[in-house]
Amino acid sequence: MSLKKRLFNNGLAYILQKGVRVLEQLFLVPFFISAWGAAYYGEWLTLTIIPSVIAFSDLGFGTSAANSFVLSYAAGDKKKAADINKTGMYIITIMVLIAIFISVVTIFSLNYFNVFDKSLINSDDAIIAVSVLITAYLLNFYNQLIESYFRAAQKAALSINLLTIKASANLGVGLFVLLLDYGVVAFAFSQLAVAVIFNGCYWILGKQALGLFKTHRGQKDKYILRDITRKGLGYLMFPAWQAIYFQGTTFAVRIILGPEAVAVFNTVRTLSRSVNQLLNIVSSSIFPELQYEIGEGNIEKAQKIYRFSIVSSFIIAFIGVIFLAIFGLWFYEIWTHNELHVPQLMWYIFVLGILFHAFWWSSEPVFRAKNEPYKFAVAGISSASLSVLLTFIFSKYFGLTGAAMGALALDVMMAIIIMPLSATMLNLKLKDILSHAFSDMQQLYVNVKSKFKLS
């Protein structure tokens, strides 16, 4: 299958996955409220904080092992790839055991201090449901590494579609449980059943797609273990900048301008960042192919994929900026029922941020593709911290418009740092990207036009 077709298939698969995830987040809500009541459902959401936090504990190590695996396999070093898989499975299992220990201590402590007794949900039911849900989440720890089998086999779209099927299954069994008026324990077991069945099938299909494990068993390697651990800690820093930025700027606005300003600030940011969901589809679509070409040593193809990401992201962002600049405030007033007043300049500053965001977000996959997380993580944490500080200062002198300026600072700084850095990692200069921009845009137009003709 050609590179263009793989990119196209990845994009379609991610669009479908986004749609199912939106349904997963929104569709069941009225059924939860109808079956359990708003207060009981609110208690359940509170309880799910525990397994949700536990789920983040493997984010770095699974990603590190998966990226190392793909790069080694694409480079032709299948023995090392098999060793990385064996070592990766080992460290993920260690993380599962640590997570189990933390979960047991957490649940025991909460029960000891009678926290569950204060809930609307029966304490025994709450403990069982949370324990079962944690088990389901822990089984997902292996999915990052298994997903890399599909990437290495250049069948990323198949993996995405399989994960979409899993999300659909979670949605279906959850709806079934709620329609039968079952409680939290049955709901948790339904999610565990999907995790057990899906993850087993996912692992089998991944191994079949690649075929590596028919000839290579792999061995645990202490040097590989050290490398996965080191880079895993780097990937654990990825969510840190988001926590600093989103929670920090919100806190700054609350302290300086008050709770009503927080409502305006966060709703404006949410609506203005809606275009970023489309940018996520682009970056997610190009990542598997970019990583494989880098691993295989096809630097020219990797550069072309990178430029495609930059150009297509800019086009989407530019159209989004124009649309939101013209219709955004009108839609915002309808969305919020005219309850919140937004300074026009504040709105336009947030909208402008989309362009800067497009440049650095489309460059971010390079760091994951080359398995070099620390450069991005340090830039992200530094920019987020400075953005929070500027939000404090500007909010004091310019109100909500100043808060928007502080928030914009993150995207400006990241665009200045990340885009040139990612280009250098691919042996490109910014002038090379600009010189190819027109031809890349023309090629993109021809490809899209031919796809529509075929359909």
From TrEMBL:
Q: Source organism's superkingdom?
A: Bacteria
Q: Where in the cell is it found?
A: Cell membrane
> Listed GO molecular functions?
antiporter activity; xenobiotic transmembrane transporter activity
User: Membrane topology type, per the record?
Assistant: Multi-pass membrane protein
Swiss-Prot/TrEMBL keywords? Cell membrane, Membrane, Transmembrane, Transmembrane helix
Q: Which residues cross the membrane?
A: 21-41, 53-76, 88-114, 126-146, 158-179, 185-205, 308-332, 344-362, 374-394, 400-421
Recorded GO cellular component terms are: plasma membrane
The question of whether Ribosomal protein is a record keyword is answered with no
Name recorded for this polypeptide: Lipopolysaccharide biosynthesis protein
